[in-house]
Amino acid sequence: MAQAVQKNTLYVGGLAEEVNESILHAAFIPFGDIKDVKTPLDQATQKHRSFGFVTFLEKEDASAAMDNMDGAELYGRVLTVNYALPERIKGGEQGWAAQPIWADADTWFERQQQEEEMQRLQAENRAAMEAAEELHRKKLAQEREGEKDEEVDTKVDPMAKAEAEVLRQNS
């Protein structure tokens, strides 16, 4: 899958340790107005990772800088300058790693509220189901008690016994 290049952002590789963002800015400013300069830091050493990105306001300025600075020397190191590819971030299309940790705070709270509401509804549904089951059990128990009462009544009253027998045969 080919990624579209960013025509106004340049990748600058081969940076010496002494080079910082202001030095990189100064090296590329002769070619045009610069929008942004970044030198990503290594998390362990807190030093840049020997490369950086320079974003120009105009595509033509970026092209001129690439033509003139690719293969040039800065602080004793030969630079590699190309158009930058879009950032490929863990987390897919949304690029969560490029966002500050608080960027999704509003949606996080919203998701938490939705989850709590869902749990509350599920608890209410469970309680309603348990209550319905208990009511059903009680009803069945009452029906069984009623059947026992009928049996007792039919033993005592021969007429009720005959009536109950006719009802059973018809059903």
From TrEMBL:
The protein, known as: RRM domain-containing protein
The record's keywords, sorted A to Z, are: RNA-binding
- The reply on keyword Cytoplasm is no
* Region called Disordered, residue ranges: 121-171
> Is Glycosyltransferase set as a keyword in this record?
no
Q: Boundaries of each RRM domain copy?
A: 8-86
Q: Which stretches are annotated as coiled coil?
A: none
Identify the domain of life: Eukaryota
A GO molecular-function annotation? mRNA binding
What organism is recorded for this protein?
Cucumis sativus (Cucumber)
What CDD domains does the annotation carry? RRM_PPIE
The record's section on InterPro entries has: Nucleotide-bd_a/b_plait_sf (IPR012677), PPIE_RRM (IPR034168), RBD_domain_sf (IPR035979), RRM_dom (IPR000504)
- Indicate, by first and last residue, each region the UniProt record lists as having compositional bias (Low complexity): 121-130
| UniProt biased composition (Basic and acidic residues) | 133-171
